[in-house]
Amino acid sequence: MTIKIGDKLPESTFRLVTADGPKPVTTSEFFGGRKIVLFGLPGAFTPTCHKNHLPGFVAEAAAIKAKGVDEIAMTCVNDHYVLTAWQEATGAAGKVAFLADGSADFAKAIGLELDATAGGLGIRSKRYSALIEDGVVKLLNVEESPGKADLSGAAHILAQLG
Fold first, then answer.
1. I need a labelling partner for 32 at 20 to 30 A (CA). Which of 5, 7, 39, 155 fits?
2. What's 112's DSSP letter?
3. Nearest-angstrom CA–CA distance, 138 and 69
4. pTM for this one?
5. What is the helix (H) or strand (E) element at residue 107, kind and residue range?
């Protein structure tokens, strides 16, 4: 079942990319008591993710946080080694927290997994953005096509934040 506005995030464990290496963190630990813009995407270094989706959040990080958002975080079905390299390559450190969902456990738990096996990518995350307040979904924007980053992009959620 796909998560919807008003639902609490299910318990799952990510590997948070930190300067000291990966840190296991649960959804309740990361999202509890905070207002977070979360976006999910199919994969690090993939064309739309690398050229369109992530760069918008890096560029708009200050404007999003100025709307009362405590943190911006992204998740995708990649391991923390790949996400560490991607964070370094994109200059996203300090602007976007990277949450590795290496086995797609979180993507499956929220019903937003994407079967990209036909393209040789295996199970991934659908492309989306969400506003999470104290672990509860307040806004949710899911793209119909993995090659688009319009509804799930930084500009769209920034406009929704008012």
1. 155
2. -
3. 12
4. 0.96
5. helix 105-109
Q: CA separation (Å) from 162 to 119, 120, 140?
A: 38, 39, 15
Exposure class string for 58-79: b at 16+ Cβ within 10 A, else e: bebbeebeeeebebbbbbbbbe
Q: Which residue bears the tokens 């079942």?
A: 1
What positions carry a catalytic annotation? 49
CA-to-CA separations, 105 to 27, 75, 101, in angstroms, rounded: 12, 11, 6
Nearest alpha carbon to residue 92 among 59, 138, 125, 126: 59
18 pLDDT higher than 90: yes
Contact (Cβ atoms closer than 8 angstroms) between residue 151 and residue 53 = no
pLDDT above 70 covers a percentage of the chain that reads: 100
- Fold for domain 13-160? Glutaredoxin (3.40.30)
25-37 pLDDT per residue, tens: 999 999 999 999 9
* pLDDT single digits (tens) 4-15: 999 999 999 999
